[in-house]
């Protein structure tokens, strides 16, 4: 009888040990068009068009933001990983790069305006949080049922250049490097464009009449362009001094 009980016990243990756990089971393949991180977009894609409304009733859109380096941060007050990540976004991305022209918007998934406002205050963030009632904007980038914590970096041409999922410190640092690089590239293109305009104006002034109204207007424009160039040069110096590790 004891031997029988022992054999039954061994058999039961064997069955338990060989039963696949959730982690051991084959990974479920994502639906067509959805990657294994829940995105329905990929790096290199043109960003979907989107519109955003803020708790105060003001609005913005992709069309208005395009031409800048854009960061969209999907979040929610009930998301613990979002709460872990947001102080890093505030300190390591928003504060250093808002002066460089980064357009950063947190997009709160399907929560009322008063909750979103309170959430922003609780997290002590200074970057704007927008509403996403019905998760309509979220579902332009991620699949139905996908987790909320994710960031999307869009370049001035409107193309997606980086995607994150959850909060991983190494991936987060890489995202900062991508943002920095995109801002540098945008600034360098701005400097080149201004230098070309200044050169063309100087050529026109050197060959044109000296006392006409048109000449006076060109001189005023030249002064304005030089002031803009000075600002971009200062910004470039700032970016050079604050390169990420």
UniProtKB/TrEMBL annotation:
Key words, A-Z: Cytochrome c-type biogenesis, Disulfide bond, Redox-active center
Record's GO cellular component terms: cell envelope
GO terms for biological process, alphabetical: cytochrome complex assembly
Principal place of residence: other
Domain Thioredoxin, residue spans: 41-184
Localisation: Cell envelope
CDD domains: TlpA_like_family
An example molecular function term from Gene Ontology annotations: oxidoreductase activity
Protein name: Thioredoxin domain-containing protein
Organism: marine metagenome
Lineage of origin: unclassified sequences, metagenomes, ecological metagenomes
């Amino acid at each position: 009888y004891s031997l029988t009980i022992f054999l039954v016990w061994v058999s039961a243990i064997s069955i338990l040990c060989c039963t696949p756990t959730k982690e051991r089971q084959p990974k479920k393949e994502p639906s067509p068009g959805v990657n294994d991180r829940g995105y329905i977009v990929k790096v290199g894609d043109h960003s979907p068009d989107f519109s955003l409304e803020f708790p105060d009733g003001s609005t913005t859109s992709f069309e208005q933001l395009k031409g800048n380096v854009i960061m969209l941060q999907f979040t929610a007050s009930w998301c613990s990983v979002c709460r872990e990540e947001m102080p890093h976004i505030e300190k390591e991305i928003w504060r250093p790069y808002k002066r460089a022209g980064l357009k950063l918007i947190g997009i709160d998934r399907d929560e009322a305006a008063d909750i979103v406002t309170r959430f922003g205050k609780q997290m002590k963030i200074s970057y704007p949080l927008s509403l996403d009632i019905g998760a309509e904007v979220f579902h332009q980038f991620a699949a139905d049922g996908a987790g909320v914590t994710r960031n999307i970096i869009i370049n001035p041409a409107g193309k997606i250049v980086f995607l994150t999922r959850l909060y991983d410190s190494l991936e987060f640092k890489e995202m900062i490097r991508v943002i920095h690089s995109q801002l540098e590239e945008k600034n360098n293109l701005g400097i080149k464009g201004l230098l070309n305009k200044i050169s063309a104006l100087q050529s026109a002034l050197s060959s044109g009449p000296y006392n006409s109204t048109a000449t006076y207007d060109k001189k005023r424009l030249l002064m304005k362009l030089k002031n803009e160039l000075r600002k971009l040069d200062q910004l470039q110096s700032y970016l050079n001094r604050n390169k990420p590790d």
